[in-house]
Amino acid sequence: MDNDRCFKLKRDGYSCVKIEPKVYDLLTKEELASKLSASLISWQQDGIRGVWAEVDLIHSHLIPVFVENGFDYHHAKSNYVMMKKWISQKEPDTLPPYASHYVGVGGFVLNDDNQLLVVQERFSCSPHWKLPGGHADLGENIGETAEREVYEETGIRTKFQCVVAFRHMHQFRFGCSDFYFVCLMKPLTLEINRCQYEIADARWLDLETYISNPLVSAANRHFAKCYLDMITTGEHRILPAKVTRYTNKGYDLVYSLQDRCDDELPHESETGFKL
Fold it and tell me: What is the per-residue DSSP string for 201-263?
């Protein structure tokens, strides 16, 4: 087949190809339709298994061309849509689905008087006391998330200590699942300066009072009991350790039962919150 009629793309390690948005600048809608149709035939003959197509906002008028050629939506972000098509007739579709989980973090902040830092959200369906926290940003470790979120919501500076417990919940926002990590935090300051936009109230509550408070959910009550069990049954904690990444470039944090934290762990990532 005439190569000028087809996209010239390099296959990846999975024998798939990806169409980048820059190619659309040189094509009309009709030219894209012709070139895409010819390319799909050529790719199938060459053993290409799947095709990715990233379509940015300024080229969104081209999305029907991909739909007409059998592409499905894979995921969307604020500035693009990713579409995909499995073209191998010899193998089942193994293109990976998009991310299925959120990662949330709650800061379990205890002061020297055994008081727990708790908040009431401004926009909640009913009043309840919960741990300050929120979702992890891209590239952010859970300890960094806890430190950042606690500060943003309450004005309290903290230091990550260990993971107390985590919850795995399904059918969460937009049908995704959710990991929620409860992190024991050491307060570095004590004066509360709550976020006026998100937090209706923030205060220090005696831990036992918190556990028996009717405005505390079963899950948060359970987290508090997990902490009490942890400090009465032994010295081991769920702590991060540096483990070399599978690419042998850099490392990842692996959380397991340990008796001390790696002193050389980074405090912040490139996108992390800086104290």
Answer: EEEEEEHHHHHH-TTB-HHHHHHHHHHHHHHHH-S-EEEEEEEE-TTSSSEEEEEEEESS--T
Label residues 58-73 b or e (16+ Cβ within 10 Å = b): ebeebeebbeebebee
Closest CA to 15 of 52, 59, 41: 52
Judge whether 80 and 62 are in contact, CB under 8 Å.
Answer: no
User: What's the N-to-C CA distance of the chain in angstroms?
Assistant: 59
Contacts of residue 271, defined as CB under 8 A and 6 or more positions apart, other chains included, come to: 137, 138, 139, 140
Tell me the β-bridge partners of 167: 180
Predicted confidence pLDDT, tens digits, the chain (275 residues): 445 789 999 999 899 999 999 999 989 999 999 999 999 999 999 999 999 999 999 999 999 999 999 999 999 999 999 999 999 999 999 999 998 999 999 999 999 999 999 999 988 778 899 999 999 998 899 999 999 999 999 999 999 999 999 999 898 888 889 999 999 999 999 999 999 999 999 999 999 999 999 999 999 999 999 999 888 877 677 888 888 887 888 888 888 887 665 555 544 443 333 33
CATH 3.40.630.30 domain position(s) in the chain? 3-86
CATH number of 101-258: 3.90.79.10
Q: What CA–CA distance (Å, rounded) separates 59 from 45?
A: 28
Domain 3-86 belongs in CATH node 3.40.630.30: yes
pTM, 2 dp: 0.80
Indicate where the chain has its CATH 3.90.79.10 domain(s): 101-258
For 97, the 3-state DSSP assignment is: coil
DSSP designation for 64:
H
